[in-house]
Amino acid sequence: MKEKTQLNDIDRSIYDFRYDEDKEDFLDSGITPDIIKEISQEKNDPQWMREFRLSSLEIYKKTPMVKWGPSIDGLDVNNIVTYIRPKSRMNTEWDNVPDNIKETFEKLGIPKAERESLAGVGAQYDSELVYHNVRKEVAQSGVVYTDLESAMHDPLYADIIRSHFMKLVPPTDHKFAALHGAVWSGGSFVYVPKGVHLDIPLQSYFRLNAKGAGQFEHTLIILEEDSSLHFIEGCSAPKYYEAGLHAGCVELFVGKNAKLRYSTIENWSKNMFNLNTKRAIVEENGRIEWVSGSFGSHVSYLYPMSILNGRKASAEFTGITFAGEGQNLDTGAKIVHNAPETSSYMNTKSISKSGGISTFRSAVTINEKAEGSRSSVSCESLMLDRISRSDTIPVIDVKTDKCDVGHEAKIGRISDEAVFYLMSRGLDEENAKAMIVRGFADNVSKELPLEYAVEMNNLIGLEMHGSIG
Amino acid sequence: MAELLEIRSLNAGIEGKELLHDISLSVSQGETHVLMGQNGAGKSTLGSTIMGSPEYKVTKGSIIFDGEDITLDSPDKRAVKGIFMSFQNPVEIPGITLSEFLRNALEHITGEKIKLWDFKKKLNSAMEILDMDRSYADRELNTGFSGGEKKKAEILQLLMLRPRLAILDETDSGLDVDAVKTVSRGIEEYRKNSSGTLIIITHNSRILDEVHLDKTHILMNGRIVKEGDGSLAAHVLENGFEKYINKDDIA
Fold first, then answer.
1. Are A398 and A363 a contacting pair, CB within 8 Å?
2. Which end of chain B offers a freer environment for a tag, N or C, measured as fewer CB atoms within 10 Å?
3. pLDDT tens figures, A123-151
């Protein structure tokens, strides 16, 4: 009756196939001024960016390692290759993407997804974007969706990027933000002009193929007044013995009356360190909606932050975390209420099994001037066995008494009674448990883009296989 | 008539405590039996043990279903072989709709895929028999259901899954007169159209007024102390259990 969870690895096959890369494409591993200059050279950075990288490196050196979360002892940053020369320049025609890269993305369902339901797609392979395309009608509406590197050299956007890049997440934020500032490469730049509403989503997909490498993509999204956008981000990497590092950065600027929905599924391989920083600032009556699924990686630190800066700005965070064997996923969300009548709602679920550890941290700050604000946090955890762990660490900091703050946390184990009930209706133990987990995750998976919801359901079935006994 | 269920000198209990002692019981295809007894007599324990609840361990004896020894089978295997139990306290499963669950269960039990259209048709007609509003199909399984709604949902499952043997554990408890009538209609439908075999566990009379009984078994302190035909049930209901109590068992 006892089956081991080996199947996880077999069934990750669509993620785990990989191609060898040529060694001459790798810059040396480690983080030194010479390496940074080389990256800057390769990327043809403007002068300010080169200086920004070097000053970030100084900050990186001075900033102590994070100590408060799960251990990142297995990560030797000096052995991580921070930049891999691209095999190909960025393409806007799928046919021009090199075959093995093309095949990789096709196995992952891109750009099939684009043909079916997206307004635009970007695909990053290791350090650089290899493909970017936006539907004609979207481009005509003035929406810009490209890589940061190109945009930095475009006179129309150079200034916007300079005035926004790492302003929300400065390199001084924490050690990996500083590292990101020094070695960032790839990612997306999205600009939605005033009054433009995109009804269909834009999607970017990040794929880290090379072994022992880091991915440091930067996403910068700016929504002008009265605009709206749904942005989808997917991430994956094949499994290697050497640890990989993902230290991306996402900065979202949501203008007055604008609405941004940002959906992410992170399904990194189980030896990745995912130390990602995401932050949004929301102006008057604007709205940010985060949908976040964290499945893969060995260790994650991920706490998207929303700063509600204008009156009536609002934030909603919906998240799900699934920690299996050997995984320690430290996730959560932060909300800062900086203006009157702002509101936030957080709803998260976490599942842990086979010794996995899932920690949920929520931090809600209501500042003095945020009178009449409301915040509600609900987090639920489900542990599938006795060796797994789940913790909830809520922090609420309220500086005005004219507000309404609620917090609710539930931690439980899968009940034997429920399993027996479903089994008495013909479901075997594995299916019974998978059904309970699916039900538990239901109100979150409903929020995911369809193909990811399907993927998540399959993943639950897969993860449940062999989890019994 | 061949025995559908045969329990042979069964002892069962939880760790360190035997709850059922030397139970022997036979149920033939198409019969309706009633298990009676006071609270704590072991009726539900016996029902759950037949269904294969992991809560109870069989320490002696065996359970034979349709000629096969199922004593060690997991509950899902028993369900596939045709045993069903209507739970006294059906478990709430949030996030899974009644209809999604039933279709899944049906496919597991029959081992065949069922088309959505065919399933819906079947479901609607079963719901009609039980006076259930169609919107129930889209509600989360048992979640937020009242006691009566839960019991109706159990009988709905009985009608959909068409088991060969149904154990109804206190299906009538907590129901008002009208609900008992509705549930009884469902049970009758199962008996007639699926030539169903029933074990009804109850300590109360209302449901028994509505169904024809073949046999009565009276449990006291984990033992069968008296057996008889259907009229025994009526007799017990009128005169109480006292005279069956074996004084030696109350220590």
1. no
2. C
3. 776 666 666 677 777 888 899 988 888 88
pTM (global) more than 0.90: no
- Does residue A133 sit within a domain? yes
A312 within domain boundaries: no
- Give the dihedral of Cα atoms B230, B235, B241, B247; nearest 10 deg: -90
Which residues of A fall below an 8 Å CB-CB distance to B? 415-418, 420-429, 431-432, 435-436, 438-443
Indicate the pLDDT class of residue A85, thresholds 50, 70 and 90. Answer: low
Q: In which domain, by residue range, is B201 found?
A: 3-239
Inside any domain, residue B152: yes
**Chain B interface, Cβ < 8 Å to A:** 51-55, 74-76, 78-80, 84-85, 87, 90-91, 93-96, 101, 104-106, 108-109, 140-141, 157, 161
ipTM value for the complex: 0.95
Report the alpha-carbon distance of residue A45 to residue A36 in Å, rounded: 11
Confidence (pLDDT) at B238: 82
Please report where in the chains the tokens 């899944």 appear, as a residue: B104
Which of A260, A278, A302 is the last residue before a domain boundary?
A302
Tell me the count of A-B CB pairs closer than 8 A: 80
pLDDT tens by residue, A5-40: 333 333 445 555 555 656 556 666 678 899 899 889
CATH number at residue B154: 3.40.50.300
Residue B247 is assigned to a structural domain of this protein? no
Q: What is the mean pLDDT of residues B51-79?
A: 96
Note whether A436 contacts B51, CB cutoff 8 Å: no
Report the number of distinct structural domains present in chain B: 1
Name the nearest CA neighbour of A467 among A38, A2, A141: A2
Structural domain boundaries, residue A444: 415-469
Among candidate residues A269, A284, A302, the one where a domain is terminated: A302
Minimum Cα–Cα distance from A419: chain B residue: B91
Taking the CA of residue B248 and the nearest CA in chain A, the distance in Å comes to 34
